[in-house]
Design brief:
With 329 residues, the protein is of the alpha+beta class. The protein has one domain (19-325). Helices cover 64% and strands 9% of the residues. It has helices at residues 2-15, 59-62, 71-95, 106-138, 145-167, 171-191, 198-201, 212-238, 243-250, 254-270, 275-291, 297-311, 315-318; strands at 17-19, 22-26, 29-34, 37-43, 49-55, 323-325. The strands form 2 sheets. Strands 2-3-4-5 form a 4-stranded antiparallel beta sheet. The chain has a two-stranded parallel sheet with strand order 1-6. β2 and β3 form a beta hairpin. 33% of the residues are buried.
Length: 329
């Protein structure tokens, strides 16, 4: 059984090309990233679609040492954050009615910077610091590394679920999740070699195994294992760990944990036909019931426009073929 599955999987991999195609939802639009470039398509208040394309080659492709496993995941994380912030700002500038746009003054820039800083601190506190503090204060299990980190991890997952459910109630976020669904449908249709039109994209699922939501969930689970191993080693040689020591150890290792999560999701995306891999991917897909919604045709059109703009003159060269995923979207 395993031998037949392995043979079939290797045959499929050899028959298909690998490619990095992914993206993210932005305000009233979609950003799509393809080899060598990314493009953003935004629906403006007058209902037209405006696109912007930028050339981009990852540092992991340009600097040999940065292409090593795990390190390339850390590099990709920071690059994705940078691209995400830029394209999100681009979408805000286009999608908001002129009278609602903030003035581009030094006060507004300081306000935007403080908002970004506050969001970062809030995320760090909610998903990293609070679970550690709560578990330390409530449960007398800090001397057992595996049990302690399992409970901390379960609280992180719980907080993450509550956070997603709360923000989903916001009108703007609901729209964002619809564009997220449009992005997934479009990527699915492209990877399956479909003739890229709205009618062919529409039937595809909004739940994609390489979604950033799946990546975050895998990272949360991966953190349980990695922190448990690290804590066990420290406690073996140096004795019990206080909350302060745990924070000093765990927080700087967040990029490493996410880098390993990148490799796990990348490996899983290539072997989704394996029943075990498919089973492990299900929690991330279940979460997408929260972070994606069914888009309308105008939103699919926006996602398709972004993908076409990203490929530009290479569109005909890449379409009409089946692909396997190369990396996380």
């Amino acid at each position: 059984m395993n031998i037949r599955w392995l043979s079939r999987s290797l045959t499929l991999i050899l028959q298909k090309s690998s490619i990095l195609v992914g993206g993210q939802a932005v305000i009233e639009g979609v950003m799509m990233r393809v080899p060598g470039a990314y493009a953003t398509a935004v629906r403006t208040p007058d209902k037209t679609i405006v696109t912007e394309r930028k050339l981009f080659i990852s540092a992991a492709k340009r600097v040999k040492g940065l292409a090593l496993p795990v390190i390339r995941g850390i590099v990709s994380l920071f690059e994705s954050l940078k691209i995400g912030m830029e394209t999100l700002q681009f979408s805000v500038d286009l999608a908001m009615p002129e009278q609602e746009k903030p003035t581009n003054t030094w006060r507004q820039k300081i306000y935007d910077l403080l908002t970004l800083l506050f969001s970062f601190i809030l995320a760090l506190g909610l998903f990293a610091i609070l679970p550690l503090w709560f578990t330390t204060e409530v449960f007398p299990i800090e001397k057992t590394a595996w049990l302690f980190n399992l409970v901390v991890g379960l609280f992180r997952v719980l907080f993450f679920l509550v956070y997603l459910l709360l923000i989903r109630q916001m009108k703007d976020v609901k729209r964002l999740f619809e564009y997220h669904g449009a992005e997934h449908k479009t990527v699915f249709a492209f990877e399956k070699g479909q003739d890229m039109c709205i009618e062919n994209i529409r039937p595809f699922s909004t739940y994609h195994p390489r979604c950033g939501t799946s990546f975050l969930f895998i990272t949360l689970i991966n953190a349980i294992v990695m922190y448990a191993i690290i804590d066990s080693l420290i406690m073996t040689f140096y004795g019990p760990m206080s909350l302060t020591i745990r924070l000093l150890v765990h927080l700087p290792l967040i990029p490493l944990v996410m880098g390993v999560g990148y490799e796990v999701l990348k490996g899983m995306s290539r072997y989704m036909e394996n029943p075990w891999v498919g089973w492990m991917a299900k929690p991330g897909l279940w979460l997408q019931h929260i972070t994606t919604s069914q888009p309308d045709d105008s939103q699919i059109e926006c996602a398709l426009s972004a993908l076409k703009a990203a490929f530009a003159d290479s569109w005909d060269l890449y379409t009409g073929k089946e692909y396997i995923a190369e990396a996380v979207d």
